[in-house]
């Protein structure tokens, strides 16, 4: 909620409604729940260097003090002075025991994001506890937030810095800080969000986060007595198309980049076509809106990895008949572990890997052609991430749910493809060039063919089937199946969901699945192609 000050100096723009929900009694007793981890006993005298779980996110949240801000919000809702007294004691203890640049102070205490998230807590508290200690700390926070050397321009942290500087500037009557925050906010939004609404941080989850935080920012601007810049409002609105297209039929965001697989964004009103290509590097397609059983797929291309992106170019995900089929390694956490590093690597995604070649991180991928019809879409992508040109064609057929993928590299090289299946699926059968997976009556069949330059495709046997570990949410994992193809210069993979195994026939230049033709190569069968802008 937003409240105005009853005291001297500038008004209070309190963002207490944005603080996380807490168990007031538990926090008052010294137990806090942070970063999705079990409660930690901090006691009445907090050790501000405590790190009970060895987690970076936990330490950031401890020093952000938003959990203490929840006590201020509880006081404002109920009028009970006890939560406010405890909040004041916690904040003032933090201020006294965490001076900046003193040896022994936790490095997280004055990390730029901790400062940005903590400053609104101090503003809310200052409406009720307007002491020199709190006011001096507000001034110090304002100076840091205004420092251009510490500002994260075009980053979600920068947006949080701007929101914090705005409310601190209003509270202290520093109009220059207030106005700087709004100017930076607008410039950063135009840098971070393109005209199609794609956030350059390369994870749909951050598109959702920035949309939500911009909503907080716009309300704070209005409560400060300023007009919302139209350019800023326009970039926030543009994000809705990106988030909407990145939302799967089950209501969850596609776990691309640092996007948890269990995140459900709000539903935005839309009048969008079912297939959308975003020039920044995304293809999202579905058979219908607002149908939980719709087919859905995603394909990645575009600029090299940055910020919250993964090395997922040429990677695909696939849903059919209301269930996920192909998934990715996903987002686990921000911790610096081997598993987290793996989730960002090509091997955690459904991609082609050039055998014996070294991967070059940060390589851009181009979408070179596409064909789109109501029941079938085909896309061609290419890059040189392994030092040779690798090309992937993706066909999605909706008359008979299936995804066909043709991977190729020049003569003298070979490619193998990786396929990560939803954790609900287990291997039921294997034979030459075929792997059948299932869950109850559900079946998904993977078929692979070597495609010579002349002559019909032939079954490609020798698939490797190995256990994998998929991140299903923050700090959560599930076992899954990964299928690794044999090596070949040109390799066709069919992913065919259904209740039974499909009937497949092969001819020269054509594979037929339950009567539905799949041309080889995949592109060109629809009579024309449209090159992409990138």
Give a verbal description of the structure.
The strands form 5 sheets. Strands 9, 10, 11, 12, 14, 15, 16, 17 and 20 form a 9-stranded antiparallel sheet that branches. A 5-stranded antiparallel sheet has the order 3-4-5-6-7, with no helix packed on it. The relative contact order is 0.08. The protein is of the alpha+beta class and 534 residues long. This is Heparin-sulfate lyase N-terminal domain-containing protein. Its main location: periplasm.
Q: How confident overall, as mean pLDDT?
A: 92
Percentage beta strand: 15-25%
Q: Give start-end ranges of low-pLDDT stretches.
A: 1-8, 526-534
Strand tally:
23
Protein name: Heparin-sulfate lyase N-terminal domain-containing protein
Subcellular location: Periplasm
Pfam family, one: Hepar_II_III_C
Domain Heparin-sulfate lyase N-terminal: 38-223
Q: Gist?
A:
It is found in: Periplasm. The chain is built from 11 helices and 23 strands.
Task: List the keywords.
534 residues, nine-stranded antiparallel β-sheet, five-stranded antiparallel β-sheet, 11 helices, elongated, Hepar_II_III_C, lyase, periplasm, Heparin-sulfate lyase N-terminal domain-containing protein
SSE map:
Elements: H1 24-28, E1 31-32, E2 40-41, H2 56-64, H3 66-78, H4 81-97, H5 112-126, H6 132-146, H7 156-172, H8 175-192, H9 204-223, H10 230-245, E3 275-278, E4 282-286, E5 296-300, E6 316-320, E7 323-326, H11 338-343, E8 352-354, E9 366-372, E10 376-383, E11 390-397, E12 402-408, E13 415-420, E14 426-431, E15 434-439, E16 442-450, E17 458-459, E18 464-473, E19 476-484, E20 490-498, E21 504-507, E22 510-513, E23 516-519
Antiparallel strand pairs: 1-2, 3-4, 4-5, 5-6, 6-7, 8-13, 9-10, 10-11, 11-12, 12-20, 13-19, 14-15, 15-16, 16-17, 16-20, 18-19, 21-22, 22-23
